[in-house]
Design a protein that fits this description.
62% of the residues lie in helices and 13% in strands. The protein is of the alpha/beta class and 292 residues long.
Amino acid sequence: MANLRIIRRRIRSVQSTAKITKAMELVAASKMRKAQVSALAARPYAERMRWVLSDLSESSSSMGDEVAHPFLERRPIKSTLILHLTPDRGLAGALNSNLNRAAFTHAFEEREEGHDISLVVVGRKGRDAFRRNRQPFLAEFTALGDYPTYEDTRPISRIVMEEYASGRVDQVVVLFPHFLNTVTQRPEARQLLPITPQPDHATEAVDYIYEPSRQKVLDELLPRYIEIQVYETVLELIASEQSARMVAMRNATDSADELIEELTLTYNKARQEQITRELLEIVGGAEVMKAS
């Protein structure tokens, strides 16, 4: 009987856990849909800004009217700033460990090339990982929430731009989870600064007129471009986090259901053995009584 009570208690415990993971799966699924819409909606705007920047740079070069800006300046790399993006919370499968592993690997590779490393971390999981390894960082940003706005991410962009414009770092790389689909989020390192315009040869060239001048448009565009890039990567982070959490909770619920089935089968077998044993004892006792 004691063994049966233990099995019943464990079944109830697993059932309670399954209810929690199922509820968390549903919450994550709801948040995931909103985060996916935001992340996917930001991509066309960011891509269009990249296209305008490339067109502006290319048309200026072809006309012999070179434009200049500190964010376009390429200099020998002595120091690299890594902007490391992670969630604030766990229960997201292997997402956090994959991101932190990628960040440590990238930092190691930069040091191997003789570059000094500066760190700006977004999210508690990245911050805690670097603290455990006694890695100092310039700044930390946490509690952005499930639906961060453009204004919420501007302080992150500001410190990145200030560090580069001051010459304290020669390169800025953002490391974030690139959202591919619900089940796939891949750690990606993207260079933020210096900005390298990529000409789009697939698009027919158009001779745009920039007012008041190319230089003034560039001066306004480049800081906004960095802010958009940072905001886009944060949205990708949120979408990846909620997707990974939904999948992790679904897997946990499925595992709990399988365990409940196994425990129920074990309980039924034990109960059947107990009943059989009791019947045999009754029959044996009856035979003894009959013999006497």
